[in-house]
Each structure stands twice: as C-alpha cells, then as structure tokens.
Design a protein that fits this description.
homodimer; 149 residues; alpha+beta; eight-stranded mixed sheet; 33% strand
C-alpha cells in the first residue's frame, strides 16, 4: 500500500447553498461545481476546488472540499449533523490505483470496512473505513479517476 | 480574498509515535518529518506528506497531514482529545499571501479570530478562526512560505 493523493475533505453541512455562498463570498473560492444528488450515499454534493498555489485561481490540482448535505431522512450524515448542528469535518478521502487491492489491504490489516465497494461522487469505486480503526477519522478510499491527472 | 492552497489538515492524536507508525505502516506514507515541539501552540507536531498523484511517492506537493499531540496539560487540544479519545480531524489550514490583509478581511466579515497572529509550524505567521463562524471548522490561516512553491 502506497499513500495516495488526498483527493478531498468531506464537510457536512445543514445548508448546501449557504455553504457554497460561504466558500465563494468569505473564503474567495472561484471554482465550485453545481450541486448534484448522490442517492447511493444519501447526500447532496458540491465540490469546491482549491488552488495548488495561493492566488492561482482556477487550478483544479488541489485537494477539494466536498460539501455534503443530507439527502433524505435516512442520510448517513443526519446523526453527524445532530451532534454538529453547524456542520464540520466529516471525512477524508485518499486516492488509490486499484480499489480491490486497497480493500484487500485494509481487510488484511484488520480494519473495518463500512459496506460494499460502490460508486462515489467522482464516478469511481469507493469504500469507507471505520473511524475507530483510523485514528478517529472516517476515511474514504477511492480509485483514482483514470486520465484525471 | 482569494481562496489559497489547502496547506494541511490537522489531526489530533493522543500518541504521536503510534500515529506516525499508522501512517507509515497502514497508509503507506514514505515522507514523514521528525516530530518537533511547538510550545507556542502547546503541541508536538509531525507532518505527513501526501503525493500529488497516487503512487508518486516522495512528492511534497500535496496537502499535508499535520499530526498534533498535546504538549503539556495546558495544551489547547486536551479538551478535543477528551471528547475524541482516539483522536480525529481537528482543523484545516489555508495559505494566504499576506497574513495582515487576511486578518483584516476576516475581521471585516465579523469572524472571531482566536488570539494574536503568531508563528506557526511552518515558520510563517498564522491565526485561527472560531469554528462556529466557519461552518463548524476550526480554520487556520497561514502566510505562504516564501519560495516554497
């Protein structure tokens, strides 16, 4: 296992539109995707791009901020928002070359994997690891989008 | 204000050495700095470098993971670890070109700044913003190291 690129930081929010306005108007983000539903994960999503170098606007090379709002009452982030009403840091996501190999690696390390491998917000296979096995961090592992770098 | 590079994600841990071993042995990190004390912040610190592209080991271009362990009983992360005994995501840090300009910007936006501007782990001026004013995220703003990119 080789440490992959930190693809994004997931930020849970009770109000996606307000969070987009915050990143645009207060933080100065210029590249924010249109919100879209991700019913498989029970969330509504928008990505904020960060630049590689401060001031280099429009770069898509940096770790993204993934804003996630609950989609439906069964959303897995409802409980997180009940504990953190203003929202907050929800998960980290690292890229790997091969999702099956990564899954086997973490299983071999005795780490609890949360559910099946499925398609994530970037259209590639992902899975989540239990925060209690990952230094308190809910960790997403995603297969690197082919041709994206 | 222009959104700057996401410099690092701060991860609080009760055991810095165990966390370094985790990133090296489980996550596959190859570039981890030697731990050092940062008495001004009340923490002991080590940085884990992440690559820009999965598998491109040794790159220093990615958002870093900043592992922080309490330094002394007065450490500001003692309370966080009491709530999160296994550790977890503690703060995010964005780069800016000019720390005084950024401080004036956030003050003008009515955001609460936690204490004076001081020297951070990368040797440049930093300040922290109150999580309740920042979508639940404790946010560090740091002046970009000159010549580092």
């Amino acid at each position: 296992m080789k440490l992959g690129r930190l693809n994004h930081i997931g930020i849970a929010t009770p109000d996606l539109e307000a969070s987009i306005a915050f990143y645009r108007d207060v933080m100065g983000a210029t590249v924010i995707t249109e919100p879209f539903d991700l019913p498989e994960q029970g969330v509504k999503v928008a990505f904020v791009n960060t630049p590689q170098v401060a001031g280099e606007l429009g770069s898509v090379g940096g770790t993204q901020i993934e804003l996630i709002e609950p989609l439906g009452a069964e959303s897995p982030i409802v409980a997180f928002l009940a504990r953190n009403p203003a929202g907050g840091q929800h998960h980290l996501c690292y890229e790997v070359e091969d999702i099956a190999e990564a899954r086997a690696w973490f299983e071999g390390q005795g780490k609890r994997i949360l559910g099946p491998t499925r398609i994530g917000a970037h259209g590639t296979p992902i899975f989540f690891l239990h925060p209690k096995d990952m230094l308190g961090q809910l960790t997403e592992i995603m297969e690197r989008p082919h041709g994206a770098h």
